[in-house]
Amino acid sequence: MTDDAARKTLTDLVVVMAALRQPVTGCPWDLEQDFSTIAPYTIEEAYEVADAIERGDRADLCEELGDLLLQVVYHAQLASEERAFTIEDVIDGITRKMIRRHPHVFGDQAARSAGAAKGFWEKIKAEEKATKPAKHGVLADVPVAMPALTRAVKLQGKAAKVGFDWPDLAPVLHKIEEELAELKAEIATPASEARQRRMAEEYGDLLFVMANVARHLHIDPEAALRGTNAKFTRRFGRIEDRLAASGKTPAQSNLAEMDALWDEAKAEEKSKP
User: Fold this and answer.
1) What's the domain count of the chain?
2) Cα–Cα–Cα angle for 46, 49, 54, nearest 5°?
3) Is the domain of 88 the same as that of 10?
4) What is the mean pLDDT of residues 107-119?
5) Which of 9, 116, 148, 153 would suit a FRET pair with 25, their CA atoms being 20 to 30 Å apart?
6) Whether 30 and 90 share a structural domain
7) Is residue 134 part of a domain?
8) Do the domain assignments include residue 57?
């Protein structure tokens, strides 16, 4: 850990970022960037934070949170150069929002005594939106840049709030069968560019329904898929280890052998408490 006397602060980070963006003396790469070129890095850093959390690596989480904080400071610096807003505006805005959205913690005695009544969060958010320029449509405020599965759940949730939703899981599961049948039908047609487009569309429809299943089951589909990706990586690594013990690589093996080793890895995992 750094000596407390030598610790850097948020103010120091803001100064560093401003220096990197200083014409002539700044960093050439940083000077070339704008909001759109930095946005992908912001998304990537958020994923790396989630990955560190998933792995339970607190030291890595500390570092990744710093990388994500840099993204906030970077965007604020770009905005300050346009005289749009500053990092102080960002901090002031989010602090005020948190206080406003938690009257049961920061409100007067009556508000604190009332506690967190059911639906209060949605009510406060609705009141806030009423003061902003209206966006057209129920789904207008769901960001397009969200991961597709997450955005699917958000879109479905928004539609559900105005009554456009199945009452329970049963018809959603039936819809899976329907969409899968439509995908199979397209797969069975002669190969062509049009067929490829139709297959992609039907596959997308199937994924959309699967996202709806996750929503009805209160499962985060992104987290669930990350878990499955980790499981696949772990089990395939076990295959590689077993093959290496016999002096082979996956490329020197075959599907039957690797499939048998996969089943062994799966059985080993399931036998653990």
Assistant:
1) 3
2) 130
3) yes
4) 72
5) 9
6) yes
7) no
8) yes
E strands along the chain, which residues? Answer: none
CATH code assigned at 53: 1.10.287.1080
Range of the domain at 242: 223-271
Average pLDDT of every residue of the chain: 91
Give the model's pLDDT for residue 1: 57
Amino acid present at 142: V
Query: Over the stretch 171-182, which tens digit does the pLDDT of each residue have?
Result: 999 999 999 999
Give 20's contacts (C-beta < 8 A, 6+ positions apart). 26, 27, 30, 31
- DSSP at 183: H
Give the C-alpha distances (Å, rounded to integers) separating 76 from 12, 27, 28, 34, 160.
14, 17, 19, 11, 35
For the entire predicted model, the pTM comes to 0.66
Residue range 132-145, pLDDT digits in tens:
666 678 898 888 88
Paired tokens of 161: 């709030």
* Token output for 171: 């018809």
Instruction: Note whether residue 173 is domain-resident.
Output: yes
The dihedral built from the CA positions of residue 126, 129, 134 and 136, taken in this order, carries a sign that is: negative
Q: Which of 42, 27, 49, 47 shows the shortest CA–CA distance to 75?
A: 42
